[in-house]
Amino acid sequence: MKADPAVRTAFIRTHTALMPVPHAPEIKLYLAHEALELWQKTEEELEAIGLPPPFWAFAWAGGQALARYILDHPHVVAGKRVFDLASGSGLVAIAAAMAGARQVIANEIDDFALAAIAANAQANGVAIDIAGGDMIGRDDGWDVVLAGDISYERDMAARMTDWLSGLRRRGCAVLIGDPGRSYLAREQLVAIAEYQVPVTRALEDTEVKRTSVWRFRSD
Question: Which pTM does this prediction carry?
């Protein structure tokens, strides 16, 4: 049974709290108090309301680094059409909107993430267009594509990298935030910034993760 939007939003507000992002405190998100407690809660309610794992409830390292970079370098997105792939909580999309992007589209395949993005955008007073579904392979003429933490799973990471590299070749600026996970295509990328990002120990087995913002290498 699929939860309706009101149920999704209510679940988010009930099981999270609005708090500053550790490495980008200009932004507040609805984040989990206790990571494992919320993860267990979603498993318990999966059958009842169709809730997938709550990736949207955490400020992941790659997203934090990318948001920090955008806030510190607003010219990257100012006045441009920006697409945020696998937006999660909407952190990076919110940073782009705060930095002066002309339009920001946040994309997710998870309906709960879409609800979280809407709630987080409202909490930060920014306008974001929200797009659901798998948009990998599309090109709507964006000026900038941002992607945080997309290198968890081999096949999906490869699919995303192939698509993103194609966007770059046609002139789109592509930035990836990632702490160097297993399936990051390092051979195609170069790091342009590095941060020490506070993260959730229960999920990352550390309290600080060295994380970079990457771009594709020039031909």
Answer: 0.91
